Amino acid sequence: MLLPKEIIPDGEIGDLRRTHNPMLTKTKERTAGILEQLLSAVESTTDSIIITNRDGVIEYVNPAFEKITGYAKEEVIGKTPRILKSGKHDNGFYKELWSTIFSGRIFRAVFINKKKDGELYYEEKTITPVTNAQGNITHFVSCGRDITECKRTEQRQAIPFTVSRILAESATIDEAVPKLLQVICEGLEWELGELWCIDSNSNALYLEGMWHIPSLELREFEAISRQITFSPEKGLPGRVWSSGQPIWLTDVVVDTDFLRAPFAARAGLHGAIAFPIQSEGKVSGVMVFFSHHIRQPDNNLLNMMIDIGNQIVHFIERKRAEEALRESERKYRMVLENINEVVYKVDITEDNPYEGSVQLVSGRVEDIIGYKPEEFLKNSSLWFSLVHPDDIPGLAESTRKVFMSKRGGIREYRLRHKRTGEYRWIEDMVLPQYNDSGKVIGIFGVARDITERKQIEEKLVYNAFYDSLTDLPNRALFMDRLKQTVEYEKRHKEYLFAVLFLDLDRFKVINDSLGHMAGDQLLITMAQRLKGLLRAVDTIARFGGDEFVILLNDIKKVSDATEVADRIQKELALPVNLNGQEVFTTVSIGIALNTSGYDCPEDLLRNADIAMYQAKTRGKARYEIFERSMHVQVMTQLQLEADLRRAIER
Fold first, then answer.
1. CB 3.0–4.6 Å: which of 9, 170, 475, 476 could bond 176 by disulfide?
2. Which pLDDT score, from 0 to 100, does residue 380 have?
């Protein structure tokens, strides 16, 4: 049945109706077009978007949500975002979330969520309340960006340093192993870690240590792992031992050579990586890590694990040697001439317990510091005369503590070599002897050269605080010195200093055109030039890439900082020869003074960075001094971007 056409009356009303209807149609068409564009933007964005009602029930998710989480929209519509909870956030986190959004404010945070397949991911999320015309909250819009790769990169970069710190701080292997396994598991998001060591007597690998996340039920798997051993080429640890190469298994459950496959299946373990810990080609152990997920091989991760294995094997070898030495001393309490350390005996007079007559010195002393044993027997004060002047107070104090403890102890100090004049680090294990009255009458000592160990420790510290390419301080050391300067300035209000943030203007062009090796050489050259322009009290650091930061201490006036900036501009503008190719570059500099009203080190660094970008914006090859208006401008821009995003979401 056909509906009758609309009857439009004659006259002015009819004319108005005939004019108004096309206008209304066009308005509706424009509105529909705008809504269609907004929907298209939401559907095509790579950010995850969730729209819930006031009760938190999901009413809409975009395709990016489905791609990131693995859930289809049909699976989540009508449910709440609790399906994404990973258990990594406490109740206080969610209490703050609801308190914020129900008060009409926007909540921003990094969430650790769980995908449909159980894999965890990091999401930088903004949750915005939506109100109706009466101002009542009707919906919430959640916009999230997957930052998992960035977080994993940060965690991976921190692992080698953390491993070095654990090795430096641990006194024994038993103390270090669980910490190492935990750090590596948590940093790489593996659920279980094992250390297998070689028993030289049985020529088999045995389980030295294991760590797993507390929530994992692994009693059966752990029990069988502690019962079995692996000979060469048998099982995953045995194959790594034989080959000396890392092995990656995407799924141990289906690997026919993985002997513990049934137990792994019941424990829910799948992906695995195993790598050797070896020194000079000799394998002394194998580390194995497991995941609940099937994992694809990652060459960068494999290389990092090999480097970590090299650190660990040196630690294990050193600690085993130390433990063997202590055990030997406990057993025999005797000094033997044929051991590798310097064994000595000194009789002490009651008048001066810190000096005495040398009765015995083993031949190893000549290998370490160049003196023959007879020279010490003839001159009882010779040993102490060789001690480094800076170590004398510490040696006296440690000796006093050894005598007071009556149990012996360890002393560390430097002795001067007879021929070369260089100082060698000595670790001296001392056992005092007492008479019936409790007075010290002599000491037995075992001393050994630990110079190489000290050099390794110093290198670890150096690597933690210096840039490996330019030998300049890195961000950590610079921030420490900046904090010290800020604290000094708080006590001395007249003190003036400045932070300069430098960025090479054409580095990317040079790096892309001539290659990374040429880019590295350019950075080294610029670092050397910058060091030549500064005083000993100043600090220059490389923050990464082509960014350098300078701390000018104890300047008298603002012009001191600008004069340094002018000298830097002139020096860095000089040509550089890179493998026969002469290149030119300039530098943009931002200057922040402690008189700007900011007393936080991070704020001063941020202000210098802002000023540097102002210099970039205003033409490059120049410097700008930070002003508060620059920060206001940056914050205004950020707020504008946020407002635009919220406008699009609504």
1. 170
2. 81
Half-sphere exposure of 395 (CA within 13 A, CB side): 21
Identity of the amino acid at 501: F
Q: Computed over its alpha carbons, how large is the radius of gyration of the chain?
A: 35
The whole-number pLDDT of residue 22 equals: 59
| Contact call for residues 88 and 70 (beta carbons, < 8 A) | no
CA distance 422 to 419: 8
In the structure encoding, which two tokens stand for residue 443, read together? 């000491």
Give all strands (DSSP E) within 20-115, no chain letters: 48-53, 58-61, 107-114
C-beta of residue 232 within 8 angstroms of C-beta of residue 238: yes
DSSP secondary structure letters along 285-298:
EEEEEE-SS-----
Q: Cα(496)–Cα(604) distance, rounded to whole angstroms?
A: 13
Decide if 20 contacts 12 (C-beta within 8 A): no
Q: How far apart are CA 368 and CA 342, in angstroms?
A: 9
> What tokens does 435 get?
């008479």
**In terms of DSSP H, where are the helices of 45-172?**
63-69, 73-76, 91-102, 148-169
Question: Per residue in 495-536, pLDDT tens?
Answer: 999 999 999 998 888 888 888 888 999 999 999 999 999 999
Phi, psi of 575 (to 5 degrees): -65, 155
Among 27-36, 54-63, 111-120, 421-430, the minimum mean pLDDT is found in 27-36
| Residue 294 · residue 271 · CB < 8 Å | yes
Tell me phi and psi for residue 39, to 5 degrees. -65, -40
Q: What is the DSSP letter of 390?
A: G
Write out the two tokens for 509.
């062009």
Token pair for 235: 């099982």
- How far apart are the C-alpha atoms of 109 and 125, rounded to whole Å? 6
Hey, what amino acid is at 463? N
Would you state the structure tokens that stand for residue 589, as one six-digit string?
């500099």
Q: Report the pLDDT value the prediction gives residue 178, as an integer from 0 to 100.
A: 86
* Cβ–Cβ under 8 Å, residues 143 and 48: yes
Distance, C-alpha 242 to centroid of its chain:
32
Query: Sheet harboring 356-361: ordered strands across?
Result: 356-361, 342-348, 440-449, 423-434, 409-416
DSSP state of 577: E
Q: 641-647 contacts: CB < 8 A, separation 24 or more?
A: 645/126, 645/143, 646/106, 646/128
- Cα separation, 482 vs 598, in Å, equals 13
Its pTM surpasses 0.90: no
Supply angle C-alpha 185, 191, 194, rounded to 5.
65
C-alpha to C-alpha distance for 438 and 355, rounded to whole angstroms: 17
What pLDDT is recorded for position 161? 83
Please answer whether residues 425 and 454 qualify as being in contact, where contact means their C-beta atoms are separated by less than 8 angstroms: yes
Give CA separation, 353 vs 375, 394, 437, 564, in Å. Answer: 21, 16, 14, 57
**How far apart are alpha carbons 77 and 600 in whole angstroms?**
47
- Cα–Cα distances in angstroms (integers) from residue 167 to residues 411, 429, 567, in the given order: 20, 21, 44
Residues 6+ away with beta carbon under 8 Å from 476:
464, 465
Find the helix or strand (DSSP H, E) in which 252 lies. none
Measured distance CA(12)–CA(385) in Å, rounded: 119
Q: Which residues pair with 139 in a beta bridge?
A: 53, 130
* CA 320 – CA 224 distance, rounded (Å): 27
Phi, psi at 80, each rounded to 5°: -110, 160
Confidence of residue 6 (pLDDT cuts 50, 70, 90): very low
